[in-house]
Design brief:
Length: 261
């Protein structure tokens, strides 16, 4: 696991040079495209595009750091989502406890891919945008500074949270607890004993930061200024138009009946 305290990767790529606000517009297009459709083939398009872009900008190490979260959410979603739709189509699996139909599998796969697309799209955004740029971008479009500060703090603490999880995992392994396994159910069960110490460590870190901010007289009500103000150029406008066009086209196609299970 990488020891970098941040998910931001300092590269000189096209996405890195864009303004944070234009990347928010592009991210909106990816999220709407992933949310609008239910067919796995249609949801795969924004997921694959986000993943290819993530690898191209040097975000593969970040994806590896979060891969266990993506895999866990995908597997849990794939197991749970069939309960939220009606059966239909051919029966793919029949057991004494019930049967799995084609519609249930496609529905679960589409929803799981949607969650993965949200994570990979968000990871692409934080890989190409520093915390300072994100806070400044959100503040420049009128979002209250208290919310911007909360988002920036969460992004800053998230790598620390991952590091704490890895430390707890190693400590539990030293005590004889085996974490891992090829069976997905065994893999998920092996992480259950890590939840309480990991969350207790996260709460302790949050309390420590809150006391440090209070000791320094931090107040979110004052007007803020930012040292590094990014220009909003032609490329940014084109990216915003692209993101809005993708979002509008996705909604229109969905209303026409495309991409449904």
């Amino acid at each position: 696991m990488s020891s970098s305290p941040s998910l931001y990767v300092d590269r000189d790529t096209f996405l890195h040079r864009l303004n944070a606000r234009s990347k928010m517009g592009l991210l909106l297009g990816v999220f709407v495209a992933a949310y609008a459709f239910g067919d796995p083939l249609w949801v795969f398009v924004p997921l694959a595009a986000s993943f290819v872009a993530l690898v191209a900008v040097g975000g593969w190490p970040n994806f590896k750091r979060l891969s266990f979260i993506v895999v866990a959410l995908f597997l849990v979603g794939f197991a749970v989502w069939p309960a939220f739709t009606d059966p239909g189509g051919d029966v793919l699996l029949s057991t004494p406890l019930g049967s799995i139909t084609e519609r249930e599998v496609l529905f679960a796969l589409g929803r799981s891919q949607r969650i993965a697309a949200f994570i990979v799209g968000g990871l692409l955004f934080v890989t190409t945008t520093s915390n300072e740029e994100i806070v400044a971008g959100m503040r420049s479009i009128g979002i209250p500074y208290a919310f911007c500060f909360a988002v920036g703090t969460a992004l800053r603490l998230f790598p620390t949270f991952l590091g704490s999880a890895n430390t707890v995992r190693q400590a539990q392994a030293a005590r004889g607890h085996e974490v891992g396994g090829r069976n997905p159910i065994t893999l998920l069960r092996s992480y259950v004993p890590l939840l309480i110490p990991v969350f207790m460590t996260a709460i302790r870190n949050v309390q420590t930061q809150a006391m440090a901010l209070e000791a320094r007289g931090f107040d979110t009500r004052g007007e803020r200024s930012f040292y590094n103000r990014q220009p909003f150029g032609t490329a940014d406008w084109l990216v915003v138009v692209l993101g809005l066009a993708v979002a509008a086209a996705s909604v229109w196609l969905r209303l026409q009946g495309y991409g449904t299970v």
